[in-house]
Amino acid sequence: MLLAYLDEIGAPGAFIHPKHPKFADSPAFGYGGFIIPEENARKFGAFFAARKKEFFAPSIPEDEDPGQWEKKGADLLYAKVYEERPENLRLLGTLISKLRQCDGHLFYYADEKPIGTKKETNCGPIEMLEREKQAMKESLNRIARHADKEQQWVMVMMDQINEKTRKQRLGEMYAHIFSRATQFAEMRRILEPPMHIDSKLSSNIQFADWVCALVKRAIEYQLVEDSRYNWIPDAGQLAAARGAFTYDSKLHLFQRDTPDLHHSEIMNKERPVIEAGTIAADNARKLAAIRRASFNS
Known about the structure:
This protein is α/β, with parallel strands linked by helices. The protein has helices at about 40-55, 75, 80-85, 85-100, 120, 125-150, 165-180, 205-225, 270-295, and strands at about 1-10, 30-35, 105-110, 155-160, 195, 250, 260. A seven-stranded mixed β-sheet has the order 5-4-1-2-3-6-7, with helices on both faces. Helix 1 runs antiparallel to helix 4 (about 85-100) and helix 6 crosses helix 7. The N and C termini lie far apart (about 75 Å).
């Protein structure tokens, strides 16, 4: 059996730009983490806990359990980490290499969000809940597909949320899994809807948060021209991540002419979305120049 550990990539709210004073969180929303055979899950969790305790020993309060102390992915992979603390990247690279040795895979699914304010993009509470629901459904579909390729059953675990939201999601995910299973046998690979676990009690959920932080920054590099994370493709410490994602991992683009990004493509130096926009802008400028010349002739 496989175990999938998930957390959120970004936030479901409106987005304009990382430097915008209000709508700055992330250009995409979804879920990410990793998938690992059950027999290796405890071994990997112990490895993560030991490396975390050793690496961040000076930061862990004396009166706190090192296993429950958390280093959030957002703090691990801050904008200037490549220059100021490359050892953070080496730590993450070491953990990804260990995951691969344990026959595990990184995973993500995220939807690009339309650019604009809440009003401009019709992004109120109901729409944000729908965005969360749709991203979770697609994540489950792709986890099931991966499990089917591996000929394994799979259980999905996520970071804990409030009880009201948990109950709402539970019914929706039950309905999705069972209704889709009538058409796609692969959905039967998921034994239960996602279970929620307090990240303080699970090293593997903590690592899923780190994976989401990496994916979020890689997605920003791909979608934001002046991204703060232009070091992503040049960070040799993260070489282990290239090829580590499941084949079914995906960044679904919003109303783009360019194809969606799959697998490890978010880690590439090439940025097809940005490049397509640059070409379109250049073509528009050339066309405008031709029209002006024709008008003045």
